[in-house]
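Hi Y.,

Following your request, here is the sequence exactly as I used it, all 410 residues.
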Amino acid sequence: MNNTDTKRDGKKHLVGLCIVYKNRNYGSMLQSFATLVKLEELGVDYEIIDYSHPQTLQFYASAAGRITNRDFLYSKARLLRKKAGLKFHPDYAANEAVRGERFDRFKRERFGHFSKHINEYIKLRRYAEKFTDVLVGSDQLWLPSGNGTNFYNLMFAPRACNKIAYAASFGVSSIPERQKEETAEYLRRIQHISLREEAGQRIVKELTGRDVPVILDPTMVLTRQQWDAAIPDKAVTEGEYLFCYFLGNNPSQREEVTALARVLGLKIVVLRHLDEYIAKDETFGDEAPYDVGPEEFVNLIRHAKYVCTDSFHGSVFSILYHKQFISFNRYGDGTNSRNSRLDTLFGNIGIDRRFHGDLENEIQREIDYDAVDSKLETLRCRSDRFIRDALSIRTVREEERGSSGCSAAE
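Below is the corresponding structure, written out as tokens. Let me know if you'd prefer a different format.
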């Protein structure tokens, strides 16, 4: 796999990865997969750090402050609703097991190079001494509610280790006052920081005074052609359809989409009960397949006539596959809103948020994808330069070309 002999402090590059590969979430698993594809393209040796925080009284005591964190409480409430749904709705539990196996199969087939399993923090710190670099991936891994694990903030990595945040995300627009100092502390230890959204960029500037770049989520660093090569093209259902991928519990949005599909004369293919059990989902949509892992998810968007979603990655793959789509707001616009990543992405590529107004006209209003693709290529070059600079590598292919393939103006 390795096509570079670059060394850091006399050691060959070995990058320890802190990525989300266990969550049965389409966006999380696909962006982690895209990170691996990018590193392999660069010829980087890596190891996915298999760590689970210790279930000890000391850990829970250190994390006790999270019970007043709104995001933490919101996430726990959703988890409880999902557990209740699994307990009281046997059909849903059976279907969820089918979907879970699809996720697990994707993980088995597409992820490798794992560390040994580590479940003690002191062992994690010792193990990290083998790495020249440690990289935290994208997704909302810097949510304030997760600070207590000291994993995704890279506090476990030796001070001398090169630490990299690759399109990281706080998931919120501001940090709670009581957590600002501890957040600033871990940010100051990370030598190379890039964010996925401008709100995160502002947070880093406020807490550390550093100007850091906003780059693409790893799923968009890969081109449509790379996704076509990685994910086999296979239809999940027959005929034309509107694909609906909602994570939030917003009944009015489901009613609007149902009315829209009637006007368009299309069936609705929907993924139900994703982050929690939602009673409204039981009667929403015409087809609701559960044997859908990350590969099938990409194919559902790839073959859709239209897409309606409140998901960042639902929007990402709609853009990659040039779909007419509507992106709904999943959250409100308060200080803990997670809408910033979509605001940043859509602003950078020059399209509207497309989540309000006359849905029939909105979803059929043509997007200039030639212009979008041109802007994406510029952003890909910026993302490519960041990761190459952070890892201080020039691959054999790059040495032969004399550049990364991106112009200085980009």
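The two ends are 29 Å apart (CA to CA).

Thanks again,
Q.
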